[in-house]
Amino acid sequence: MADDPRVAALIASAQRIGADPLDYATVMSYETGGTLDPSTRGGAGNRHIGLIQFGPAEQRAYGASQDQTFEQQLGAVERYLVDRGFKPGMGRLDLYSTINAGSPGRYGASDAGNGGAPGSVADKVRDQMGAHEQKASAFLGGSFTPRMPAEAGGTAGAGAFGLSGPVSAGAASSVTPAAGATMQAPAEAERGPDVAAILKALTSTGAATAAAAPQAAAPAPMPLQPVQRRAQPFDAAAYLASLQRTART
User: Where on the tree of life does the source sit, at the highest rank (predicted)?
Assistant: First the structure.
């Protein structure tokens, strides 16, 4: 459909609001039952019309009519999405939440009570849009490559979409590694004290200190001085007296 003027119009419209053209075409295909017909009617009492199934109040507020061409109705689609809070870079989940539930972020909302298909916003994006993505890809003239919707509120490819709904960036970071993956060593700040390293450092420090300290000189031995005996003068009188005492006894 490279020559289809609707393709260029849809891409230009998606660029003006900051949406992915494939997401944009996919949700329109889903809302129109795969026809991309701006006159499509549906919902409770067939009161909803067009590319994103405008309700009666929205038709009046944003100027949507089933008599418009595809290109003309894109203007009403843009006005609705911007007014309801869709921001450039938001992914398919928020794009469809804005269309189906009136604003981004309402992933658990459901319009089943108003004649919509069963399931929440998240259910429909995850489970019911596969065939419409293929139709959208063919409409845009590209080859179909399955992609998961971007994380709510983030830029395309910034998040993930799991089997039970959107997965936050914080949750994605704690996923168990696949088989064969190598776990990274913990950061230094997360490790406990390395006792072996501390002991080694203390030991080496003590040895280095001991080696660096000068050896203390051993005290010199005290010289042995000979006992000086003083010679006593010989007392002859005393000696003779002692002899006489001995003789008398």
Answer: Bacteria
Single-letter residue type at 88: P
Q: How far is CA 119 from CA 115, 195, 236, in A?
A: 12, 58, 146
Q: Would you write out the chain's pLDDT as a tens digit for each of its 249 residues? A: 558 999 999 999 999 999 999 999 999 999 999 999 999 999 889 999 999 999 999 999 999 999 999 999 999 999 999 999 999 999 999 999 999 999 999 999 999 888 888 999 999 999 999 999 999 999 999 754 544 444 333 333 333 333 233 333 333 333 333 333 333 333 333 344 555 555 565 555 554 544 444 455 555 655 555 545 555 566 667 766 766 666 565
Residues 6+ apart with CB under 8 A from 55: 43, 47, 48
Token representation of residue 42: 């549906």
Where in the chain are the domains?
Answer: 5-162
Q: Which residues contact 50 (CB under 8 A, 6 or more apart)?
A: 32, 38, 39, 40, 59, 64, 65, 66, 68, 73, 76, 77
From CA 70, how far away is CA 244, in angstroms rounded?
166
Q: Confirm if 76 and 64 have CB atoms less than 8 A apart.
A: yes
Which amino acid appears at position 99 of this protein?
I
* Structure tokens given for 241: 């007296």
Tokens 């064969």, located at residue:
180
Fold that domain 5-162 belongs to in CATH = Lysozyme (1.10.530)
Coil, strand or helix: which one is 94? helix
> Is residue 197 within 8 Å of residue 205, measured between CB atoms?
no
